[in-house]
Automatic annotation (TrEMBL):
Domain of life, per lineage: Bacteria
Domain Cupin type-1: residue ranges: 3-130
Organism: Roseibium aggregatum
Signal peptide positions on this chain: none
Name of the featured protein: Cupin domain-containing protein
Pfam family, any one: Cupin_2
Length: 146
């Protein structure tokens, strides 16, 4: 990690990614942790998935997000922290009517930074699932339409 101040409007190396309609701006990367700022528009979501090798968290700055675990659903607003332990399926949804702004982090960093670089602008769901599986993020199959 480089020392110093990374200004609010900047990302590492000037990067910002469009991942599933969200804007992700990388802020910190070490072997132990990866942290990014996220702007999540209303009506967007990250489908249920599992990080088998990482713990993940979200600290809410503005707006509201819903988190769905297989056995529990919750809502988080400004100042709240969402905790998603490794190996537990979770989906993140913005159904609030306004944009949500938050800070995400994972520990250890593993391959998520590389995944976001690859997913920037990807719109095909099958390609998103394929690339994610190569970088240790496993999306769950959609529920039966029956």
């Amino acid at each position: 990690m480089e020392k110093g101040v990374l200004k609010a409007e900047g990302g590492m190396d000037g990067l910002a990614w469009n991942v599933v309609g969200h804007t992700y701006v990388p802020k910190l990367l070490t072997d132990d942790a990866f942290v990014w700022h996220a702007t999540i528009p209303d009506g967007t979501f990250v489908p249920p998935h599992i990080h088998p090798t990482q713990d993940e968290w979200v600290y809410m700055l503005d707006g509201e997000l819903e988190i769905e675990f297989p056995d529990e659903h919750g809502k988080a607003g400004p100042g709240d922290t969402i905790r998603m332990p490794r190996g537990i399926a979770h989906g993140i949804f913005n159904r609030s009517g306004k944009t949500a702004v938050c800070i995400f982090g994972v520990s250890p960093a593993r391959k998520l930074y590389e995944l976001f670089t690859e997913l920037d602008g990807v719109t095909d769901p099958a390609e998103l699932v394929r690339l994610s599986a190569l970088r240790e993020v496993n999306f769950l199959p959609p529920p039966d339409a029956a």
